[in-house]
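stage 2 :: seqdesign
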């Protein structure tokens, strides 16, 4: 059957699919607009299956807090090329995914895929639609949800959305506190701390680092007792470089993050402490 170019254009505007795909969908659906949308969704699902062995190494990372600042979410969605990652269609997918995180208050990917978002589609259907439209493998890689009853969250999305972070602070929401949280979120992106403080570093990790430092010193010809002392000093340096509160504050050299938190707490009359930290970088290898 023949279908009007106006109907094809309307379907294209609605779904973002190619003109040829829209025309075929309308023909196969007998001109029924809703059935044509369903046809394209099914096609998208089929395309996803065909592309399941492709590598989706590009994409976007988003961090977001709600208006009250007592909830936060961070996600990573992937595609195959940076060109698609910068498209409106892919950005819409990312926004749908993070909307779903807040909706179900969970970062479980399987739960999110079956969650309905604005427009009535599930996240999986949005992924299938996006796949059909852009012709690439598209996936929701990971997500996390946080909530707080005794503090607030701040986020930072680095331009380009390849890396983002969240900081959760205990204490009241004040202008000073939010500025502190924003600064610490930027610190996390820039300096890549492994943990908030020393309690987050396992004894096994420290033992391994200390052994490496000691062997390096011995290989340089140092006596064992001197090598032991050197390894202890380097462990301290490890803490300073990898624990957020011990890092040098990027906005003011000579001060640690802990110094800045203490100063803002004193000035504002609040006892701010970092309770939550999350940092996502595009393409990170996840360890089970």
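stage 2 :: out
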């Amino acid at each position: 059957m023949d279908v009007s170019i106006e109907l094809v254009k309307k379907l294209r505007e609605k779904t973002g699919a190619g003109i040829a795909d829209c025309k075929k969908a309308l023909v196969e659906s007998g001109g029924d607009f809703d059935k044509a949308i369903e046809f394209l969704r099914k096609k998208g699902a089929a395309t996803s299956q065909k592309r399941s062995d492709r590598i989706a190494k590009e994409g976007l990372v988003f961090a977001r807090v709600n208006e009250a600042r007592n909830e936060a979410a961070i996600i990573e969605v992937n595609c195959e090329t940076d060109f698609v990652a910068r498209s409106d269609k892919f950005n819409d997918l990312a926004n749908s995914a993070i909307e779903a995180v807040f909706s179900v208050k969970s970062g479980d990917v399987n739960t999110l895929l079956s969650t309905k978002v604005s427009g009535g589609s599930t996240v999986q259907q949005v992924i299938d639609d996006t796949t059909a439209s852009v012709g690439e493998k598209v996936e929701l890689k990971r997500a996390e949800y946080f909530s707080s009853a005794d503090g607030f969250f701040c986020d930072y999305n680095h331009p380009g959305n390849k890396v983002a972070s969240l900081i959760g602070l205990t204490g009241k929401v004040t202008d000073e506190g939010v500025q502190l949280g924003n600064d610490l979120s930027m610190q996390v992106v820039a300096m890549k701390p492994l943990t908030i403080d020393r309690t987050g570093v396992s004894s096994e990790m420290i033992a391994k680092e200390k052994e490496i430092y000691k062997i390096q010193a011995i290989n340089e010809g140092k006596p064992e007792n001197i090598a032991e002392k050197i390894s202890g000093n380097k462990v301290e340096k490890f803490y300073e470089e990898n624990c957020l509160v011990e890092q040098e504050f990027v906005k003011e050299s000579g001060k640690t993050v802990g110094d800045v938190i203490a100063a803002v707490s004193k000035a504002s009359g609040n006892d701010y402490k970092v309770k939550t930290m999350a940092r996502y970088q595009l393409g990170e290898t996840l360890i089970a």
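stage 3 :: structure notes
- Strands lie at 58-65, 71-79, 139-147, 151-157, 163-170, 273-281.
- The mean pLDDT is 90.
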